[in-house]
Write a structure and sequence with these properties.
By secondary structure, the protein is of the alpha+beta class. The protein has one domain. The chain is built from four helices and five strands; from the N terminus they run αββαββααβ.
Length: about 110
């Protein structure tokens, strides 16, 4: 499993109290996996990537946080429009066995 290298490379920042920022998550993930990963084409959704999902018998796929995607979409439309857009255009778009997965989190850390 590649989670250790992902977790160590995912953020940068020091003890100065500044918020940490993500490195180029697409490059980080591509370097950590032995298969080509499929990302949403709009890089603005990269901040919604929460990791890579795996299941026996299937290739690893990029996992996105559903709530974060809707939040990003809500920057340019209403929340209702964002949910509708997400459900129809993103969640409803199957592009093969490497189609990203969308996770709805229920627990906050």
């Amino acid at each position: 499993m590649h989670s250790d290298s992902l977790n160590n490379n995912q953020i940068t920042g020091g003890s100065s109290g500044e918020p940490a920022e993500r490195l180029n998550i697409r490059e980080d993930l591509a370097g950590d996996w032995d298969t080509e990963l499929l990302f949403l084409s709009e890089e603005e959704f990269d901040e919604a990537i929460i990791g890579v999902a795996e299941r026996i018998g299937d290739e690893p796929v990029v996992a996105y946080d559903t709530t974060k995607i809707v939040e990003i979409l809500s920057r340019s439309m209403s929340v209702d429009e964002a949910y509708e857009f997400f459900e129809f255009n993103i969640l409803g778009a199957y592009v093969g066995h490497k189609t990203p997965m969308f996770i709805t989190t229920v627990f906050k850390q």
